Write the structure tokens for this entry.
Amino acid sequence: MVEIFKKSTPGSAILVIAFLLLLVFLLIPQSASAAAPQQQVDFPKGVSAVNPGSDLWREVRQRDLPMQGISQVRGVESGVLINVQGDRWARFRINNPVKYAPMALLAVILILVLFYALRGKVGIEGGLSGRMVKRFTDYERVVHWVLAIVFLFLALTGLVLLLGRTLLIPLFGHHLFSLLASASKEGHNLFGPIFLVSLVMMVISFARRNIYEKGDLTWLLKGGGFIGKGHVSGGFFNMGEKSWYWLVILAGFAISISGLILVSPNFGQGRVIMEISHIVHVIGAILLIAISIGHMYMGSIGTEGSSEAMKSGYVDINWVEAHHDRWAKQIKENSEIVSAEEFARLQGRAPDSADTAAEQSQ
Amino acid sequence: MSERLEKGLQVLRAEMDKKVMSYFSSCVRCGICAESCLFYTETNDPRYTPIYKTEPMRKLWKNEYSFWGKLKSALGISKPMTEADLADWEELVYDGCSMCGRCSMVCPVGVDITMVIFKVKHALAVAGFSPEGLVGATQRAVDIGSPMGITMKAVLATIKHTEANTGLKVPLDVEGADYLALLSSNEIALYPEYLESLVKIFDHAGVSWTLSSDAYEATNSGLQIGNKAIAGQLVQRVVDGAEKLKVKNVISPECGHAYTALRWEGPNFIGKAYPFRVVHILELLDELQAQGKLKTTGMETDRLTFHDPCSIVRRGGILAQPRNLLTPIAENFVEMTDHGSMNWCCGGGGGVSSNERAEGLKHTVFNRKKSQIEEIKVDAVVTACSNCRMVMEEGVEYNEMDMPMLGLTEMIAEHLAEKTH
Amino acid sequence: MIEYLIDGPLWYFSLAVFCIGVLLQLARILFGAGKTDLSVARGSASGGAWRNVFSRFIPHHEIAPKIRLQVVAGYMFHLGLFAVLFFAAPHVIFLEEHLLGFGWTSMPHWAFIVASQFAFFGLLILWLRRMLNSVSRLISTLDDHVAAILTFVVMLTGCLALLKGFTELRLLHRFTVELFLIYFPFSCLMHTFTFIPSRAFTGAWFGRRGIDA
């Protein structure tokens, strides 16, 4: 099962679009300044002398092309007097991510509320049987939850840093916000590398099972069984889950690498690289936050039987049949199903009547 | 509060010493002990986690000895212990624990979990929450002198057969002998070759020894059920018999818990040190071999391994002796992957083999020993505990394996060279 | 007012509770009831005790593959926290000014950050494993969860106050530290000290039998 918005926006496509947008932004001044030498300046009649200062400042302001001077001070950008790029970046930031991020996140929440109201919880035909199959080991669940918790912390602190001026200062006032922002910055910077390590662990644990295979396209074309009725075939992970996975990995690495560049500015990167990193970082982050809200919805209240997978690691066999029939076939061949009583025993409790009743009703 | 519960709690309070206080303060519930426990690894049932088996005592410690417990009592909001707190743990402690001691080896903060489980067993035994099989065995041990009901008459019959088979005399009630040999009921009933082996070896090495009609039983059902008073009573019989015959040493036979009961816990059960030395038969044989009094000849050619009985090796300290004795007579000896003080239990120790209710579980946990044996592809397994031997033979039969279980003392006796004196 | 309380009376109170509490708990263990073992020892009890205190830092190889996550995350957390607690510059300065009167060389800032990342990561993994593994879920008590969360909160408030420019954030960290010190002697956090007598007791028991535990 997959979120409706997720399957229409493959992660890699978004990143490509983002990079293209950025490229366009960077090329506009080039094309504009290329035309500049052709332009004639209209001086008031009677005086035909060029102000030597304007040439200097034109170069300093980098109107024609990026300009670096030479200074006595040796440094990465000590030859740049005014960073035009920076102004452009600051305006882009205020007009785009800062403005559209809250809208995007609110839109996602609204869509989900609407979806739940109209479609409701995606149930399982025949309900839960009580007979369970092991889906995720202890280690795999630990990896998922470490990544999730660190991500949520980074998302929260990151959004505080992004939305401070426009949203939070009006709300909390300057003093409280300064505390919040300082705390968020320190927390965000410290936990960032931890996110990267967790991401690497996620790649190692889950990459193999997320490789696209035959049948995945069919799943996509059938809308994931999401809209309307009808059974869609899926493997251990269906196409929607795989796409979410690869989005997390790709956007996650983009965020992590750009984050590392941003958190350690003492390796010779100049402002321009920092600005580009920031744009990549913020766009990737908003994308992941938005879609993760959908992921959290699907994994909890959105689908019957899904949340157990990341809690005990076991899932109901009926849930497997409904969403991952190709894996269900493998399970049956290897007789890996455990009864409700056995499942209760493995969890360290005496089987209660609910478990056995559910089984007896099958 | 019921009488049974009160009796049990009294025992737990008496058992609360500084070690237990330290242990409960140190345990951080990491769960590493579970990975070392046969009963957990073969069933994946979290309730068999070793430290979980000590819950009754931990609850008492929490309620009556910890800050929060005492605060809650003062405020009147504490949750008192109930009979179920003891009764529900009977199966875990008696069926699901063979007192093998592996957990005590691995705890990162150093808790001797086995010792604490034994204290819980003591409380359960006194409160009357023990398996039927063990209760019966203990009764027979106290009344008849043997948990299997073996009387002196049966012993005399075994002596007669031994003398007939070996052509040697079995000394009985000889005052002033150097060594008093004890037997276990299992050996008398199932492996009488053990007594024959003793006779031959002692004759070969010129050992002055005797049996005692007052003290022939080494097995200690009191220890198995966890009743320290009865355990002490049974140890006292041996002490009395040994003192009567004025022997210098008492030999503990090839029986795991008997060694624990007599050698290590006995003096503490009866409250005083012995006037004699206690030695395990393998210890004695190793000493004799080192002194040149025991000489062997010939080699077993089969591929052999040694199963380390928990109470003798890990909890008893007899680690080097089995290897010292086996390697000279086994040309194809190979160790199990996990061997020595970290070998796996056969599953029948601590009274489990006398507990009919635990039979199914015992068969399940034998899978570990089975895979250990199959991994090294041996022709036979040698051991030095009659209970292990019996449990493993039953396990082998249940799994339709062809795997002989051999006794070490017997094997030595089969390889005796010319007399050394 | 709050600043005065947190930097003053509450600090002294929490320090007193911690010191007296720890000493009392240790005294109960070291001077508590215990019977002499009347059996004849085969090996050295004290030798076994000393050896076991140190040998248990390395798990037995027979069991090591099965407990890799706990051991790796456990060491990451404990070593990271130890490094941060005693060698991070703000702490060295604090200990010198407020407690000991002397200090020592502290870690470079980048090492401080890396050590705390190890500590956070390790603790997070351990606490998640405690919740997700069926064994630890069964045997864990409220005390275990409170201790883990409290430790994490102390570390987190420390991280949030890194910039040092904000009194409120520093006070928040100090306050959580004071809560931690008060909770410490009455919780499983005592294992910080009691693991030593526990390992020693067990080491002595095995040592008498001639077994290296």
In short: Chain B has a mean pLDDT of 95. DSSP finds 22 helices and eight strands in chain B. The longest strand of chain B covers residues 300-306. The CA atoms of residues 176 and 379 of chain B lie 43 Å apart.
